[in-house]
Amino acid sequence: MKGSFLALGIFGLLLILFGTVFALQGSGMIGGSPMTGKPFWIYAGSGISILGLILAALGFYSGGKRRTPKRVAGEEKDKVATTGGVSASGSEVQDKENHTS
User: Fold this and answer.
1) Bridge-partner residues for 92, per DSSP?
2) b/e per residue 80-93 (b: at least 16 CB within 10 A)
């Protein structure tokens, strides 16, 4: 599934590139094309670039589920179940925030 979102993002980047070139050709900044100097291509290129921006954002920012980090090995699992500094198993647990050395 990640590959399809990556492909969508890359396709969006290509649309941004082509749309920018079309808009620059329409404005006359890039010459040597039948599109040079024609205002239609300024608007068409801008629209293509905006569409590419939307597709790239969907592809790159929606590509994977945001996962919470896994617990580190050795982390105190029963600390959540503590009451008054004593864990559910009866052993004392030191609170890291209140512990001063």
Assistant:
1) 86
2) eebeeeebeeeeeb
**pLDDT tens across the length of the chain (101 residues):** 678 888 999 999 999 999 999 999 999 999 888 999 999 999 999 999 999 999 999 998 886 565 566 666 655 555 555 555 555 555 555 555 555 55
C-alpha span between 96 and 101 (Å, rounded): 10
101 vs 94: CA distance, rounded Å: 12
The Cα 23–Cα 85 span in angstroms is 67
pTM over 0.90: no
Rounded Cα distance between 5 and 58, Å, is 8
**Nearest-angstrom CA–CA distance, 84 and 64:** 40
Question: Token pair for residue 80?
Answer: 């959540």
